[in-house]
C-alpha cells in the first residue's frame, strides 16, 4: 500500500502530561491503526499556541477564508481536513474534558471553511479519569460534549474508550482497555 492509499489518522493529545493516561490510550489506538497500514500523525496540543475562540464570527461569514486568529490552529486545520480519522485524547479535568482539548474543539467551529465536508471523518475518543466511575468523575460530561458537538456538524464517532487511572501510567495496567483501544485503532485505520 503506497502513501496515497494509506488512511491518515490524526491523533490530538489534550493532556498537559506528555506521558499521561489518555496519551497511553491514544498511543494504543495509534498502534492499532498502524497495524492495518494507516499513517499516524500525533499532535501534542498542550505544547501548541491555541487561543480561545473570540466569538467574532469571522469564520462564518460567506466570504470568509477561515478563522481570524493567527495561531497554531492555522497549521492544524489542513491536517484535520486531510486526515481520514481523528483520535481525540483527553483526561477529565474538573468534570469535563481538559481545557487544552476544549480550546481545540471550540476552534473547530471554523473548520468548514478549510475544506469540503471537513467533518466527514471517523472519530475516536480516548478519555481517562481519576474516579472509579465515569458518571461521578465527569467523564460522561465530556463524552456528551463530544457527541453533541460532532452530531451538530454531522460527524460520526466510531468509538469511545475510557477508564479510571489517577496517577500517570496507571492505565497501562488495564490490559482489557488497552486491547479495546487497539481494536478501535484498527477500525479507524481501515
Average pLDDT, all residues = 95
Name of the CATH superfamily? Flavodoxin domain
How many domains, in number, for the residues? 1
What's the CATH first level?
Answer: Alpha Beta
Task: Sum up the structure in keywords.
single chain; 190 residues; alpha/beta; Rossmann fold; six-stranded mixed β-sheet; 21% strand; globular
Q: What is the fold's blueprint, element by element?
A:
Layout: E1 8-13, H1 21-35, E2 39-44, H2 73-82, E3 85-93, E4 96-97, H3 99-107, E5 122-129, H4 139-152, E6 156-164, H5 175-189
Parallel strand pairs: 1-2, 1-3, 3-5, 5-6
Antiparallel strand pairs: 3-4
Helix pairs in contact: 1-5
What does the model show?
- By secondary structure, the protein is α/β, with parallel strands linked by helices.
- The chain has one domain (8-189): Flavodoxin domain (Rossmann fold, 3-Layer(aba) Sandwich).
- Helix content is 33%, strand content 21%.
- The chain is built from 5 helices and 6 strands; from the N terminus they run E-H-E-H-E-E-H-E-H-E-H.
- It has helices spanning 21-35, 73-82, 99-107, 139-152, 175-189, and strands at residues 8-13, 39-44, 85-93, 96-97, 122-129, 156-164.
- Strands 1, 2, 3, 4, 5 and 6 form a 6-stranded mixed sheet that branches.
- A hairpin with a 2-residue loop joins strand 3 and strand 4.
- Helix 1 crosses helix 5 (175-189).
- The radius of gyration is 16 Å and the shape is globular.
